[in-house]
Structure formats: structure tokens, C-alpha cells
Amino acid sequence: MSTKGGGKTGSAKKTPRLLPGLAVKDGFMRHPFDLEFGVRTSGLIAGRNLKCGRRADRHNTAYFGVAPSVFREMIVRWRRSKPAAPIDQFTFVDLGAGMGRALLLAAEFPFRAVLGVELNPTLARIGRRNMALWRAAGRARSPIHMICRDAAEFQLPPGPCVVFLFNPFGAPVLRRILTAWARSLAGREGQIDILYVNNEQQRELEREPGLIRLFAGEVRRSRADAIADHRILANQPDGEYAVTNWEDCSIHRWVGKSTRFSA
Ligand SMILES: C[S@@+](CC[C@H](N)C(=O)[O-])C[C@H]1O[C@@H](n2cnc3c(N)ncnc32)[C@H](O)[C@@H]1O
After folding, report:
1. How far is the CA of 63 from the centre of ligand 1 (A)?
2. 136 Cα–ligand 1 center, Å
3. How many A from CA of 15 to the centre of ligand 1?
4. Could you report the per-residue pLDDT of 70-86, keeping only the tens digit for each?
5. CB 54: neighbour CB atoms within 10 A?
6. pLDDT at residue 6, as a whole number
7. How far apart are CA 116 and CA 134, in angstroms?
8. Does ligand 1 come within 6 angstroms of the Cβ of 118?
9. Which one has a higher pLDDT value, 183 or 132?
10. Å from CA of 257 to ligand 1 middle
11. In the chain, what are the domain boundaries?
12. Whether residue 94 has its Cβ less than 6 Å from ligand 1
């Protein structure tokens, strides 16, 4: 078969190759959250498959969307912790936002703004598409944005912030963030709280004198989320990642007075 003009098939669009972990042959399964809302946040992508030529690549843990039930429970716990300002004065910041599942869930609350920071450009692009769908469906109660950047190079916006972490990176990146905060946040107005889900690097937060811990414990997945995540993880080809019915979580508040970096 030939094409008109007989030359190259220049106009034929190539389907972009899916990131490893997002193809059915890699065990990909859609999470009920995506089936219900018509968005695309499912999949498990190992950190080694998310490399994009950045310094922080080797500390990338993986992509996996947060269980909606765990996310919502963390917001409930945070709101009980007596934040110093009403929720509509807080900017929600997801460091390691992936395809934006936590951002979509956060935008259901009346935050001042919802902001995602994602290292991998393909995930950030998918996340932006999800946000457009969320807005079009009238589900976004706050403005949502996605920035493609290393979280360690991102400066928090002015005013109160809730920083969300779903085990996005290893200790070196978290330490770079805390170092930058300790240097830059002195005298800053507005509370900064951290919600940390699957808090593998919690020790780094405990060691930071500028932070106090408000909560640490297990937050259970709903039955539906537990079933979905167990199924998805059982389907991964190399069985690299494990899942439990709960996530180890913690909530921290920046109170300053860091002496760790004073010269
Ligand atoms: C476990 S996923 C969490 C996704 C999302 N927060 C959620 O809860 O649905 C972690 C994400 O962090 C991203 N990430 C890892 N290191 C990063 C860095 N240094 N800066 C920004 N994003 C990073 C990964 O690419 C991945 O998408």
C-alpha cells in the first residue's frame, strides 16, 4: 500500500511509548478511582523507569497513586490539628505529584490553591490532562497547577502551606529540602505543615529541630482501596513492591528555630 505522494508517511502519528508499568503486559490495572472519574492515575512505575536526566533521578522511589481513603483521612487528621489559619488560606503542595491523584483529591477541598511538583515530564503531562478533566467536570474547588521540577529546587509559595509527601524520594532529596527550608524560612509568615504518607524517611524529619511531630501512626485503607491496591501489586511482573492494608503516616509542623545549619 502506498500513500498519496508516494513519500514518507510523515502525517501518520506514532502512538507514544507507554512508560514501563503502564502497559497491560506489565500487569497494568486501572484503580476504581480512575474508573469512577474517567481520569488516568493508575499504574506502578519503578523509580529506575522514571529517569529523566536529573540529579534527583537516582533517589526516585516509584510512581503509585495514593489510596484516596488514606489521603482523605490525613486531611481529616490535619484539620483536627488546629491549623493556625482557615483552609482557604492554605496552599496545598504535593512534592512528587506524579499523575496528580492527590492533587485532584485536594482540589475537592477549598484550598487557596493546589500545586503539584513532579520530576518526570511524562507524568507531569498526564497530571495536567487529569486536572483539565477535573476542572471540566466541575470537581475542582480550588485552582490547580502542576510544575515539572525537582522538589529540592522548588520554593514554597508565600502564606500557609500544607506539604504532601507520598514517599516520593530517598533521604538525600528530603535533606536538601529541609536544608533549604532551614536557610530560607526564618521570618516567613504562614504555617507550614507536612503530611507524610508511607513515611520511610521519617527519621530525617525527626532530626530536623525546626519541625515538631503532631501525629504518627497507621492509617488504614478502605476495604475497596485495599482490594484494589492488593490486586494491582499482585499483578506486578517482578514482585518488587509490597502493600499492606494501612500506610505508616505522620504529620509535622514547621516551628523554625532550626540550629542545624547555623554557622
Ligand atoms: C509515590 S508517587 C506519588 C504520587 C502522588 N503524590 C500521589 O499521591 O498520587 C511519587 C512521585 O514523586 C516523584 N518524584 C520523585 N522524586 C522527585 C523529585 N526529586 N522531585 C519531584 N518529584 C519527584 C516521582 O516521579 C513520582 O511520580
Report:
1. 6
2. 25
3. 25
4. 999 999 999 999 999 99
5. 17
6. 37
7. 15
8. yes
9. 132
10. 29
11. 24-46+54-254
12. yes
The pLDDT value given to residue 241: 81
- Give the N- to C-terminal CA distance of the chain in Å, as an integer: 73
Are 161 and 83 in contact, with CB atoms under 8 Å apart?
no
* Ligand 1 and 103: CB distance under 6 A: no
pLDDT of residue 15: 63
Q: How much is the pTM?
A: 0.92
* Ligand 1 binding pocket mutation candidate from 45, 50, 59, 60 (most atoms within 8 A of CB): 60
Mean pLDDT of 211-235: 93
Q: What distance in Å separates the CA atoms of residue 26 and residue 258, rounded to the nearest whole number?
A: 45
- pLDDT grade for 186, boundaries at 50, 70 and 90: confident
Q: Which of 19, 54, 59, 95 to mutate for ligand 1's pocket (most ligand atoms within 8 Å of CB)?
A: 95
Signed CA dihedral, 56, 57, 61, 67: sign only: positive
What pLDDT, on a 0 to 100 scale, did the predictor assign at position 5?
36
Query: Architecture of 24-46+54-254 per CATH?
Result: 3-Layer(aba) Sandwich (3.40)
| pLDDT confidence bin for 142, thresholds 50/70/90 | very high
Among 45, 73, 120, which residue has the most ligand 1 atoms within 8 Å of its CB, making it the best to mutate? 120
